[in-house]
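Next comes this protein.

***
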Amino acid sequence: MINLAIRDIRHSWWRYSLTGIILGLLIATTITMFGIYRGMVADAVALPAKSGADIWVVQKDTLGPYAEASSLYSDEQLGLAGFPGVSEAANVLYFTLQVQRGADDVRVMIAGYEDGKIGQPTSIIAGRPIVKSKYEAVADASSGFEIGDKLLIRRNEYTVVGLTERMTSTGGDPIVFLRLKDAQEVQFDEDNTSIYNDRKRSNQNESNEFAKYKANAILVKAADGWDPKQVAASIKQWKHFEAYTYQEMEQILLSKTIEKAANQIGLFLVILEIVSAAIVALLIYTMTMGKLKEIAVLKLIGANNSLIMMMILQESWGIGIIGYTIGAIVSALWVPVFPRYVVYSTDIRVITFAITMAICTLASIISIRAAIKVEPASAIGG
């Protein structure tokens, strides 16, 4: 028996191919949007996941250093270091600013850490860690910095001595690591006019120094055999700080920091799928309406509804396979040029393929219903 689907595709190959290309671009966008969401999640948890901490101690009634402002005196770390269940405690300082690289400005997150303690840069792929007490930095490779580059941060120049991989802020900004003291000086540094005004107002010989000894959070590593949840609860009770375990901090990042962006991506994906379904449905319906007489002839010679339904589905699945193939190729080509990290993994492509075929199947329902209603007698008499 003649395969009506193949014959019809050959007859309308230009329209079929054009629809496949359009659908392919939509599928490429879908794959990319999935990848952007995964990349946002990866960026959000990159720094806490590689910090080595079990607990984040932050200012009371705040959500911590990644979601909102937090300020603690650095000497609080000494009290936490001897707290029951704590094996290590270290101050960290995070803030975002523009740093100058030659004639360009680059937006980065500064991460200040205590040497030899948790919170220091990991995943160094080139160069070395910071060994000098001042004016050395380790930058993430996504920043575009290279070993030996000079960074002008406020009034001081820092030399990049090492590069990390996949160390970014929740917003996708590359991280530049500095020693804690350097980071404190950068964040609380004042220009000469401000220093003069402070001295004049307070009648002191130097500007206020206490601000230089603050941190955003204290990273805590639980001692062996201790449950981080119990240690965090004890810190909250006795130290009157907020204390979050890694699971709690991860939830804060995903539900508070990137929730709105994730919802926007989700809505955009829904719109893409609706548009894709409409395009496929329009093509298949048009092709079906153009061959109603042939369908009536098939029924007249004994073809049942299941055979006709399968022919329509073959056309729809064919356009889905063509569109997905084009989409996978196009997305693979343009993902590397995106300014943000995009996850391009096998499971995303598999999920997208399954969604595409499901959409093509659903888009065929109207055409199948129209074909089934065709009366065999309509094949006679024109």
Remarks:
- Residues 4-43+260-379 form one domain.
- Residues 317 and 358 are 9 Å apart (CA to CA).
- The two ends are 23 Å apart (CA to CA).
- The first helix runs from residue 4 to 11.
